[in-house]
User: What shape does this take?
Amino acid sequence: MATLFFVGMLDLSPWLTLSLSQFQLYALVFLLGSFAVASLSDLRRMSAQREFLEIWLLAALVVVAYDVYIALTGGAWLVPLVKWVIVAVLAACSHRSVGALFSLAIGDVCAIVAVAGLLSPVLVIVFFVALKISDLGMRPFLRLKGGGGAYPFMPVVLIGTLVMIALVVWAFPFLLGLWN
Assistant: This one.
């Protein structure tokens, strides 16, 4: 009985948030611009420039610092902690040394982490699903630019991020509006 009472008192909204704040949307648009330029570079040379990696790392570190600040000043800490554990596990599964989800270079993984850090836990999972679906659809065409099984992945990150923005800005509000 106590378990049912606890579940009834548990606020699931931070876990299931399907919307983004204005800051998060602006950050996604900023990252989207860097992904567009990096995608062109990746298509041309099969590698993005090192400056992009540094920008994506800095963006991820800023979001981590913000989440830590909120937790230390009395805000929620469990949701960001779970989100970052999910991001870390999925990012590790995406790196070429593990290769369970994707087999990516560190720059591609950092780009993904920069986006995922801005999302709620459920949207992180949706983002990785969008990346996987985009990858499966784009891989045959991107392999034409690659060699030896490798292919440029930044176009997949670009499309996956666009899909997330479209889902959050248009699709989820529309679908939730149908339920109300």
Observations:
- The helical segments are 2-9, 13-16, 22-45, 50-72, 78-94, 106-116, 121-142, 154-179.
- Residues 1-8 have pLDDT under 50 and may be disordered.
- Residues 21-173 form one domain.
- The two ends are 31 Å apart (CA to CA).
